[in-house]
Task: inverse folding
């Protein structure tokens, strides 16, 4: 149609990669042949970085860097849809830390924050990269194990192994 616009990644003379919004228009001769194309661009790197920050804040817990409820919901919906197609079972575990509130009250929130960060780290080490560990709220975590096995009893045993690994950790 003689017109295009969109986001592209470009490279500055110093080698730095940046995002730009590029618009290209075609100018035609009277006979309809192409006379030239004119490109106009603007650097949108700051805008893209700001969007990334907003997306991260909306989808990840600021303290533990784990997915939050919103991201968990999205991943759960994806896992359910994949399981429905493939008939491969998964598992969902809900974990609540016992006696967290008294510890947090007695030793101040900084200590409680350190505990939550350590719990998040340990939980993440107990699962595969394809699985999801999310902070559900205060001292509550959710572990989503996807694509375990076609056989329900084997999938249950796999989930039990991960649950025991979490308990020990």
Result:
């Amino acid at each position: 149609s003689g017109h295009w616009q969109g986001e592209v990644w470009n490279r500055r003379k110093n080698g730095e990669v940046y995002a730009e919004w590029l618009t290209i228009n075609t100018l035609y001769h009277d006979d309809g042949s192409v006379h030239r194309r004119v490109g106009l661009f603007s650097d949108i790197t700051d805008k893209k970085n700001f969007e990334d920050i907003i997306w991260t804040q909306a989808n990840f817990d600021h303290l533990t860097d784990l997915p939050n409820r919103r991201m968990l919901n999205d991943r759960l919906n994806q896992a359910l849809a994949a399981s429905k197609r493939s008939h491969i079972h998964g598992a969902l575990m809900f974990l609540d830390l016992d006696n967290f509130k008294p510890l947090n009250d007695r030793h101040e929130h900084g200590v409680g924050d350190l505990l939550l960060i350590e719990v998040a780290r340990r939980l993440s080490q107990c699962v595969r990269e394809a699985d999801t560990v999310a902070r559900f709220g205060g001292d509550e975590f959710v572990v989503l194990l996807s694509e375990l096995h076609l056989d329900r009893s084997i999938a249950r045993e796999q989930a039990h192994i991960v649950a025991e690994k979490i308990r020990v950790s």
Remarks:
- The longest helix spans residues 100-125.
